Amino acid sequence: MAIKQTKDVAAIPSAELDDWGPVELPVSEQVMDAEISSFVAGHALFHPEEGDTIDIKAGDTVYFDNNSRGTWEVLETVRKACLNYKRD
User: Fold this and answer.
1) How is the chain split into domains, by residue range?
2) Domain covering 25-85 in this structure, CATH number
């Protein structure tokens, strides 16, 4: 088993990260698998198709059920760690 740890992720200079380029809209229609995301930097709003807007800032952890639909509004570049998993 390989175990990897990255410390102080929010402090890594952006220049040291891979540039994935701009995000095209829409990224996808939905989050297909369930996802738990821990936000380590940035600020964004998630506008779900149903329910209230979720205001997400660094330090927050958010659970998205499978097939979550909505629109992201990124207010400040976001860094997050996420775990996706299949949920029936």
Assistant:
1) 25-85
2) 2.60.120.10
pTM: 0.72
CB 61 within 8 A of CB 7: no
Cβ atoms within 10 Å, residue 67: 12
45 neighbors 56 (Cβ within 8 angstroms) = yes
Amino acid symbol at 84 = N
Of 52, 23, 56, 28, the closest CA to residue 42 belongs to 56
Which tokens is 70 given? 């909505």
pLDDT averaged over every residue in the chain: 83
* Joined tokens for residue 14: 């952006």
Among candidate residues 87, 76, 72, 81, the one with its CA nearest the CA of residue 24: 72
Tokens 């909505």, residue located: 70
79 or 87, higher pLDDT: 79
Report d(CA 54, CA 74) in Å as an integer. 12
